[in-house]
Design brief:
about 325 residues; alpha/beta; eight-stranded parallel β-sheet; two-stranded antiparallel sheet; 9 helices; 10 strands; about 40% helix; globular
Length: about 325
C-alpha cells in the first residue's frame, strides 16, 4: 500500500477578494511541489463532492443550508458574499468546499478499505475554524470533522483522534467535539493569537481536549517538547481507531501571518511521530488535510516534507 493524494481542480476556483492570503496560489504551490518525481508513487485520486448528509454529521443542518442554499446562489450575482470579516464566498467556493470535505471522506474510505496506507488531502478552503453553526477564519466546512464523523458512521470507528499543528487554534474542531468523549482533539498553536481560543484550561466536557499554547517566538524545542511531553502520550493513551491531522504549515518561521519559528524538519518530525503512534494504536490509519500556510515557498517545502514522511511510514 502507498500514500493517497486527494485533490480536485475545483479547489483552485474558490476566489477570495484581491490580496487575501488564502489564495489559489497556495494549493497550486503544494501541487507543484508534489509533482516532483520523488512523489511518483502517490496514489493520485480525484476528490468527490461531499454529500449534504456527511456535512450534517459535523455541522448544524441550518448552517449547511445557509452556505449552500442561501449564500452560494448569491455568488451568481455578486462577485463576493461576505461570510465573516475574513471569509468570503465566490462563484466557485461552494464546490471547492464540498470537494475539500469530500476528499477527506474518500480518504477515510481508501484507508479503511486497505487500498492506501494513509492519505493527504491537498485541498482548500481550509476547515479547522469552521464551527458547528458558524463559518469563519477562511473556513466554510470543517473537512476534518466531517471525515472523523464519517469514520464512525460508515466504518464503525468508535474513537478518533485529531491532532492540529496549524499555528492558529482550531476553534471549530474544538467546538464540534467539545461534548464528545470519543473524540480527542489536540492542538499546538501560537497563543494569545487569532481566534482567541485554545488556552490550556480548555479541556472539553470529558477532558477530551488537549491544548498546548505556545508563545510568540517559540521554535523547534518548544514545539517538540509539547508533543513529546503532552500530546503524543495523550493520543497513545486514548488509543484511537483512526488518527486525523489538521496539517497547517503557518507555524513556519517564514510565514507572514504568525510568529512561531518552525522549519520543514519540524513538520517532518511530527508527521513521523504521529504515524508511529498510529502504527501502535490503529494499524497506521492516518488521514491528513491541508489547513494554513501563507508563504508559498515555505508552504510548498513543508507540505512536501509532510507527505514524504507519510510515504515513509
Amino acid at each position: 500500500m502507498t500514500t493517497a493524494l486527494l485533490t480536485h481542480p475545483a479547489c483552485l476556483n474558490h476566489e477570495p477578494p484581491p490580496g487575501h492570503p488564502e489564495s489559489p496560489a497556495r494549493l497550486a504551490a503544494v501541487l507543484e511541489a508534489l509533482s516532483d518525481p520523488e512523489f511518483g508513487a502517490l496514489a493520485r485520486l480525484e476528490a468527490p463532492a461531499a454529500a449534504r448528509s456527511a456535512l450534517i454529521g459535523a455541522h448544524a443542518a441550518q448552517q449547511v443550508a445557509r452556505l449552500l442554499d442561501e449564500w452560494a446562489p448569491l455568488t451568481g450575482t455578486h462577485r463576493y458574499v461576505r461570510v465573516d470579516p475574513d471569509t468570503a464566498m465566490s462563484a466557485g467556493s461552494a464546490e471547492a468546499a464540498l470537494r475539500a470535505a469530500g476528499a477527506c471522506v474518500r480518504a477515510v474510505d481508501e484507508v479503511m478499505g486497505g487500498r492506501s496506507r494513509n492519505a493527504f488531502c491537498a485541498v482548500r478552503p481550509p476547515g479547522h475554524h469552521a464551527e458547528r453553526a458558524r463559518a469563519m477564519g477562511f473556513c466554510l466546512f470543517n473537512s476534518i470533522a466531517v471525515a472523523a464523523h464519517h469514520a464512525r458512521v460508515a466504518h464503525g470507528c468508535k474513537r478518533v483522534a485529531i491532532v492540529d499543528f496549524d499555528v492558529h487554534h482550531g476553534n471549530g474542531t474544538q467546538d464540534i467535539f467539545w461534548n464528545d468523549p470519543d473524540t480527542l482533539y489536540a492542538s499546538t498553536h501560537e497563543f494569545p493569537y487569532y481566534p482567541g481560543t485554545g488556552a490550556a484550561d480548555e479541556r472539553g466536557a470529558s477532558g477530551n481536549i488537549v491544548n498546548v499554547p505556545l508563545p510568540a517566538g517559540a521554535g523547534s524545542e518548544a514545539f517538540r517538547t509539547a508533543y513529546r511531553d503532552v500530546i503524543l502520550p495523550a493520543v497513545e493513551q486514548f488509543r484511537p481507531d483512526f488518527l486525523f491531522i489538521s496539517a497547517g504549515f503557518d507555524a513556519h518561521a517564514a510565514d507572514p501571518l504568525a510568529d512561531l519559528r518552525l522549519t520543514e524538519a519540524d513538520f517532518s518530525w511530527i508527521t513521523r511521530e504521529l504515524c508511529a503512534v498510529a502504527a501502535r494504536c490503529c494499524d497506521g490509519r492516518v488521514v491528513s488535510t491541508l489547513e494554513g500556510g501563507y508563504d508559498l515557498d515555505a508552504l510548498a517545502a513543508s507540505a512536501a516534507a509532510h507527505v514524504r514522511a507519510l510515504m515513509e511510514a
